[in-house]
Amino acid sequence: METVAKKTTVLKGERRNGVGTRLSRALRAEGRVPAVVYGHGETPETLSLNLHDVVMGLTRGARTFEVEMGGQKNQFLIKEVQYDHMDTTPIHLDLTRVDMNECVTVRVGIELRGTPKGAADGGILDQHVADIEVECLVSKIPETLHPLITELGVGESLLVKDLELPEGVKATLDPEERIASVRAKAAESDEDSEEGEEGDSAEPERIGRVRKDDEDGKSDKG
Amino acid sequence: MALMPKRVKWRKSQRGKIRGLATRGNKVSFGEYGLQSMEPGWITARQIEAGRVAATHYLHREGNVYVRIFPHKPVSSKPLETRMGKGKGDPEFWVACIREGTMLFELGGVEENVARNALVRVASKMPCRCRFVKRRHGL
After folding, report:
1. Is A138 left (phi over 0), alpha (psi -120 to 50) or beta?
2. What is the CATH number of the domain that holds A34?
């Protein structure tokens, strides 16, 4: 069921003339994303990529980019993507040099599939882990894991060992680690009450201040 | 009881300015769906509580509601028909300072359409423009 991340996206890279906030902002204004390439014991390089191409690649679930720069084509693994304050537009990429037959450790998202049968019995689904670390070949990195949870009843859990990982992919987490569970709906407590309570006159306690008004009836300033 | 800190160093604070954009607290981290602020501003403890109640009520106590903001800042005011001077007024209410991009609420354990409807109701309680966002599973 799990799909391997889509084929490598080919991008055109341009070497950056300098580094720093001002130059990076200027690049972004031109519709390009600053990036850095490192790894394999070589000197880090700075480059820029076309924003639209990067977004298209990431949307398709790409884990590697093939960057054409200076007449050469190189494969890079996407190590990290930094997004803007609205968490929508990439503002910087970290790329690492890799061989396609190299074993790497990456984080893969988990998107639960289906409605647990325990939900019909009044249970609430909790997802404890949103992504897990896996070891695999660069060419076999799964896009996202979609475990089926329809069989989970109330009080049951989906563990790491229950995940059906694609061939050649190994989870580094403890096999007994819980990914999702269905818990019984808690009894209504005052704190979780639906109705908001009125009255907010009480004041918080002051840190490191002895209350003088206990002694002379004056309230302290501050 | 409205949200407020349990202990504070100082009873009153100056108004301050909200500068910049949210560089943390701007991702869906706990649930699956979120309500993100598109404007900076103050959100009062009452508004936060109203949003939480609206979401809990709509979900019929299913799923999980996460409140990602907390009112740390006291706002003081002078009583009506009081002459100016005689010092700063007493704290009246508490607010959370929100930057553009701050994640206000998150929901988990429910379907997308249910989460969307619940967060629309929460957004109507907020004093700022908000948008519905989903957790990013990939890079």
Report:
1. alpha
2. 2.40.240.10
Total number of domains in chain A: 2
Residue B52 lies in a domain: yes
Q: Does A41 touch chain B (CB under 8 A)?
A: no
What six digits make up the tokens of A112? Answer: 């639960």
Cβ distance B52 to A196 less than 8 Å, yes or no, reads yes
pLDDT in tens, B97-126: 999 999 999 999 888 999 999 999 999 999
Q: What is the CATH number of the domain that holds B69?
A: 3.90.1170.10
Range of the domain at B111: 40-78+88-134
Cα three-residue angle B96-B100-B105, rounded to 5 degrees:
55
Structural domain harbouring A60: 2-98
Residue B16 in domain: no
Res A199 pLDDT > 70: no
> Is residue A37 classed as helix, strand or coil in its secondary structure?
strand
pLDDT in tens, A139-166: 888 888 899 988 888 889 999 998 888 8
- Reported ipTM: the value is 0.89
Hey, which residues 91-130 in chain A have their CB within 8 Å of chain B? 109-111, 115, 119, 124-127, 130
| pLDDT tens track for A63-116 | 999 999 888 898 999 999 999 999 999 999 999 999 888 899 999 999 888 888
Cα dihedral B22→B25→B26→B31 (10° resolution): -170
pTM: 0.86
> A196–B11: do the CB atoms touch at under 8 Å?
no
